[in-house]
Amino acid sequence: MSSWFKRKEKGIQTATDQKKDTPKGLWYKSPTGKIVESDELAKNFYVSPEDDYHVRIGSKEYFEILFDDNKFTELDVKLSSKDPLKFEDTKKYVDRLKAAEAKTGLKDAVRTAVGKSMGKNVVICCMDFSFIGGSMGSVVGEKIARGIDHAIKKKLPFVMISKSGGARMMEAALSLMQLAKTSAKLAQLAEAGIPYISLCTDPTTGGTTASYAMLGDINISEPGALIGFAGPRVVKEATGKELPEGFQTAEFLQEHGFLDFIVHRRDLKKKINLYIDLIENNPVRQ
Predict the structure, then answer these.
(1) Where is this protein primarily located (predicted)?
(2) pTM above 0.70?
(3) Residue 50 sits in which domain range?
């Protein structure tokens, strides 16, 4: 009786042309080892259903979540970085920019858009970590500043979604100037009496944390997000002390008064609009 398969000396073998590859992106494995189908993950707001792990997402996904029917008008679409310092380390800065743009399809590490969220027009700026680590360069600062200007002109609430590794070293002092620039613009927004909601996502670090990320009328975060200025190793070396458990997590920061609320991604749209209504003293919507 012949077997339905044939064995060879080195085990069962399949001809190369008969092998089938599993499509990439079909499954997602969370850091805790939980596996979920990518389609199911998207339907669950990119949160792993078994362990509630919030997967890092970018502006495309946040716009889908926050804007009604994913309809919005993007502002300053073509704004892109230059290389005023002619910076070069292991690679030329201009080459890094070209590579990042080709890889991500983005012009820089932030996108700004205006549209309706729960029927109310809002301006949303969202950072993309996939573009050079979400680093804050001149274009990031300029697009945020212009987004704030648009919010002031149209009297619209402003939402900032931060996800950044900090300042962009390839732009040196020009990058650091964006801290003051964006902070000054937010002061103008406050003077105009317009709500500003800041959402810190994983990770929010460096100059981003030291400026617009922590200047909201209400500062919120997603569960488990890393939020801080310098990394834990640098803080430990500077202070000479052991760091407490959970240091620089969203939960630790909320406990110590740096955050107002932690919001699950499935509730993000509803909560942001609730906070805007509270600031504007509008009746609470059902």
Answers:
(1) cytoplasm
(2) yes
(3) 23-55
